[in-house]
């Protein structure tokens, strides 16, 4: 489990003499055979199928299922959790603030975590996001209001009063997890508190990509790309991704993610780590269903791991998602791939 290795026992009788205690457990559970894969990441147990009727010698399909199940459970846990939870890693002191923008907004301090739903004010969260994503200068209230809601015609005094109210509401909520204000008022406008150590997942993402470009070894480059990929949990500030004031950044990081994940998949295939190719291809398709290269690598890795039937299913799934032109390109890629018989996949 600690080494991330799968277990396949086609017949429990083969361990009867070698490990009688384990054999006794299997007999008690009426297990004649089993397939087990570590439940990632940081496995503390296995996902097990007892007495499988198909794919008895192949664990790749179960590995894919374990990844999908883990993602679903993590999302459900986040949805159901209404209480503040500690955030270790980047947050060590009471002046450390970690902010996640990919997917749903989260602010993490030593005291706990605030998600956007705790603000109970979409306009407050937009004002705060605008200030955090543009941290170099102080922003006058009128500038913030016009940047976020340019179509609204209000008097400057009304705009300033509204922004002041949104900031006040955010401060009240943020005070639950931090003894210091995140947003300061200055004669020039509102700015981030310079006395706090603030880091966003967007900044981490950029730093990891830069580090991967400068890496001196393939292993180091792949590890940095893996970390960057796992930071991406959806478009920046998903609740407002189509709004004019943030859409350029959403598009920029969507393109950066696609470029990054495709490079990672290619690098992993070069070292023939097809289990990882499969896992990260699933990650890519989860967030970018139309990523043609991700479908390609998912099919290739699944076939290389020995599951023709599952590779066929993934090809059919890609046909349902991609346009006819994109699917034709996918078929051309597969036709050129050595060791992947396209005619068997289509048959």
Automatic annotation (TrEMBL):
Superkingdom, taxonomy of origin: Bacteria
UniProt-listed InterPro entries: AfsR-DnrI-RedD_regulator, BTAD, TPR-like_helical_dom_sf, WH-like_DNA-bd_sf
Domain Bacterial transcriptional activator: 200-335
Protein's recorded name: Transcriptional regulator
Gene source species: Pseudoflavonifractor gallinarum
């Amino acid at each position: 489990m600690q080494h991330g290795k799968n277990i396949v026992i086609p017949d429990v009788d083969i361990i009867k003499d070698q490990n009688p205690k384990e054999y006794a457990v299997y007999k008690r559970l009426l297990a004649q055979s089993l397939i087990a894969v570590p439940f990632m990441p940081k496995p503390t147990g296995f996902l097990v199928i007892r007495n499988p009727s198909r794919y008895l010698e192949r664990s790749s399909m179960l590995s894919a299922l374990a990844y999908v199940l883990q993602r679903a459970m993590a999302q459900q846990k986040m949805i159901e959790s209404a209480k503040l939870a500690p955030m270790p890693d980047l947050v060590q002191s009471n002046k450390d603030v970690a902010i996640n923008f990919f997917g749903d907004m989260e602010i993490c301090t030593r005291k706990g975590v605030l998600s956007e739903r705790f603000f109970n004010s979409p306009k407050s969260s937009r004002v705060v996001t605008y200030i955090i994503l543009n941290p170099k200068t102080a922003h006058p209230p009128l500038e913030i209001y016009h940047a976020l809601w340019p179509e609204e015609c209000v008097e400057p005094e009304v705009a300033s009063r509204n922004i002041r109210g949104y900031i006040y509401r955010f401060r009240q909520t943020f005070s639950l997890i931090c003894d210091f204000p995140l947003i300061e008022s200055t004669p020039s406008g509102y700015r981030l508190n310079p006395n706090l150590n603030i880091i966003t997942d967007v900044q981490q993402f950029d730093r990891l990509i830069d580090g991967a470009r400068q890496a001196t070894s393939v292993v180091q480059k792949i590890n940095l790309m893996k970390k960057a990929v796992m930071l991406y949990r959806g478009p920046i500030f998903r609740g407002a991704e189509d709004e004019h004031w943030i859409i350029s950044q959403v598009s920029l990081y969507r393109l950066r993610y696609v470029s990054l994940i495709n490079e990672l998949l290619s690098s992993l295939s070069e070292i023939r780590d097809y289990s990882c190719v499969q896992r990260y291809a699933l990650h890519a398709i989860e967030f970018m269903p139309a990523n043609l290269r991700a479908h390609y690598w998912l099919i290739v890795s699944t076939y290389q791991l020995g599951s023709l039937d599952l590779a066929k299913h993934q090809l059919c799934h890609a046909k349902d998602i991609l346009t006819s032109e994109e699917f034709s390109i996918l078929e051309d890629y597969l036709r050129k791939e050595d060791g992947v018989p396209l005619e068997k996949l289509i048959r």
